[in-house]
Design goal:
Strand 5, helix 7 and strand 6 form a beta-alpha-beta unit. This protein has 10 helices and 12 strands. The protein is globular and about 50 Å long.
Amino acid sequence: MDRRNFMQVTGAGIAAAVAGFPAKVMAADSEDPQAGSQRLSIKQLKSWEALGYGMFIHFGMSTFLGQELPDGQASASTYNPDKLDVDQWVSVARDAGMKYAVLTTKHVAGHCLWPSEHTEYTVANSGNTTDVVEAFVKACEKRHIKPGLYYCSWDNHNRFGSETPSDGGIWSDMNSFPKTQIKTMPPHTTSLYHNFQTAQITELLTRYGSIMEMWIDIPGVLGRGYRTFLYNHIAQLQPDIVIMMNGGTGDGKTYLGDGTTYNVPYTWPSDLVAIERKLPPKEAGYSVWRMIEGKNYYMPGEVCDPIGKEWFWVSGDSPRPDEELTSMMQSCRDHGVNLLLDVPPDKHGLIPQEHIQALQRLKQNAAL
């Protein structure tokens, strides 16, 4: 199962049994712009919206395996960029007109781009021992780019008894409880894994200074109880941080994934709404106001999509045509959502020239 199919199955399975699900957006003019039940002030969230355009940076073990969803068994030494230049990544983002960047600190492989004290599966034991997270944050600070960090809850290496989507289970309802006819447990994480994720998030948010955005991917495996704890823990560590619990692509039916609906059981609580590999609908657009469990929240949207077809670098995965990238940018502008465009470094640890050139043409075409 690839990521896209998994996310579609997830959305369909959870959405089926939820009363009032998914949360409906409210018309923008139906709410006092000074109100809202969200943790952050509307002023803070509008400051995030004003950034507009950022770079998603998928880099790690998957880059070297050529697999988006590895089984987590590859040796840590497999990760070995020979020309790693994190400063180049952030310079490319700045020169492209981007205002922020989000780095994948740990993806499905479970390999960490920082020397975590809680697992040996990190850069500390790899072919290149650079603390990429540290280098990334410093590069952002130097170039006035706001740094964001991504952390994946689907971890095929550091399991602690958890069952991941790689094991084949599916969600059956809003709480991920298995029904009698389902023979396998749905993807879930144990309390031991929760301790591990909390410890790692704490490292990321206490070692490297101020982080603008924290991305938690595959939040459904965490369960709502721990996810709520984690949201509050992140907010306690860095009160001004913007937290993204990614809802994925949707199933195209109940949970659309284009920002018109919101997958409460899978993603709540969150400060932002992810629109993965999609754009808001042309006619309805995107509304920042939505009602969740009887309360109104101001929740900006963020479109995330790769510059090519794949999240991680793959040989031959060229950038999309200029007109497609320009249209994507314009659509995000027109609908008031941010664009987080994924531009993956290659096995050398460099963003390829063809990607840089495509970004420069986009900057010119979109008049950034």
